[in-house]
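Case study B.
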Amino acid sequence: QSALTQPASVSGSPGQSITISCTGTSSDVGIYNLVSWYQQHPGKAPKLMIYEVSKRPSGVSNRFSGSKSGNTASLTISGLQAEDEADYYCYSYGSSSRLFGGGTKLTVL
Amino acid sequence: QVQLQESGPGLVKPSQTLSLTCSISGGSITSGDYYWSWIRQHPGKGLEWIGYIYHSGSTYYNPSLKGRLTISVGTSKSQFILKLSSVTAADTAVYHCAREGVAAMVNAFDIWGQGTMVTVSS
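Model:
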């Protein structure tokens, strides 16, 4: 089963907003509200940023938000900061497996 | 506060079995609120879900690894174990254990181990 589709890279300047998309199918993202997003800095373990499409764990900045439309989920980061530069991965429950996206490298210019 | 820590050999020969242990501190597998999972990351690549074990002993594996994979609970309920047989260079990766929510933060990994690098080479 193929990974969820994410753009390989996105970039933005400090203070701007960016959105990272995560496209699946009607067997995973499209049918279940069970998409989560992870931030990973080099050499570190991934950190949960969003769960169940749009919920934020305690301690995660409200600059991070999630949404979904059809088979595509999105992570939006507003008010970009230098510390947001990292790799971001989506993950979804699916009817036949569990899938990660290929990852998106966010560069803060 | 629950913490996870992976341990095991960093080098495995091709065709042998890779065996890793995830030790849980501050909690145990007996909680029915979580799946206890393994995830790997090939060098410079993305994350790949491997599988999980539930407190009942039930397991669910990535179909691409089924047949080579076994996840079990350790003799102590504060450990779970990954065994991957017939390894090749394609199994070289950083292996993470993680906790996945069942009743809250459903199907999200809220706690991760730091990861352990496993190289398959003769």
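The CA atoms of residues 17 and 54 of chain A lie 17 Å apart. The remaining cases will be described in the next quarterly update.
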